[in-house]
Amino acid sequence: MIDRDQIVSEDELNAYVDGELPADRRGAVEAWLASHPDDATKVAVWRKQAELIRVRYGTIADERPPQRFNVRRLTRRRYGAIGAAVAAVVAAFLVGGVAGWVARGIEAPSSSDLSRFTTDALDAYRLYVVEVRHPVEVPGDQRPHLVEWLSKRVGTPLRAPELDKMGLKLVGGRLLPGPTGATAFFMYENASGERFTLYCGHTTDQETALRYTVGEQNAAYYWVDRNLAYVLSGPAERDRLHDIAQAAYDQIDRRAPPQGG
Prior knowledge:
By secondary structure, this protein is of the alpha+beta class. The protein has helices at about 10-20, 25-35, 35-55, 70-80, 85-105, 115-130, 145-155, 240-250, and strands spanning about 140, 170-180, 180-190, 195-200, 210-215, 220-225, 230-235. It is globular.
């Protein structure tokens, strides 16, 4: 017979991430996560989403919405750990109006997506390159299906560059939320297990050649080609990263026919 006290519900996982889980259930939840890697990955993603929202919305993300809105209760079941942050932001606009909250420091989104793209790409890199069992949703041996699926979800033909000459094999890819909507994420790996990722999605920024940026213990080259932003992330070894990004850049020329289409 299954001991129901040892079964952990999704609501409890949400409460664990939010820091609202009763103390007498914390041990059971942590034991559950240790033996259920899928749920452990889910919790890690929820924490990262909540962190990104707090980074973007500052202290408002931590404010409690007025009781009459009770948005937190409505959002928790559907959106998990990010519900509280979303609720606070929504309530802020409901209570104060857009103009009032702009006066408190919230500004309209910048016309430039590139800074947000590079930040999100480096965050995704750090989150998924350490995954052993679930680094991607679709494996690289299903390249045509992977590219077709991501192209459909992003809404434009995409390419997964062939980087074998650079010593990199396609591990696979996944769909992620990005600054402007659905975003594709491809992962590559070399013989020693070192990983690189390519993150791409729609942007309104002007076309640009390769540019370099440094994150925490990693770095990226990014560029824009015909309304698509690309970020090639990897270890902070500028010359090697540039060679890989250049190889990807050359293959992603939008004038060439797409793969998997």
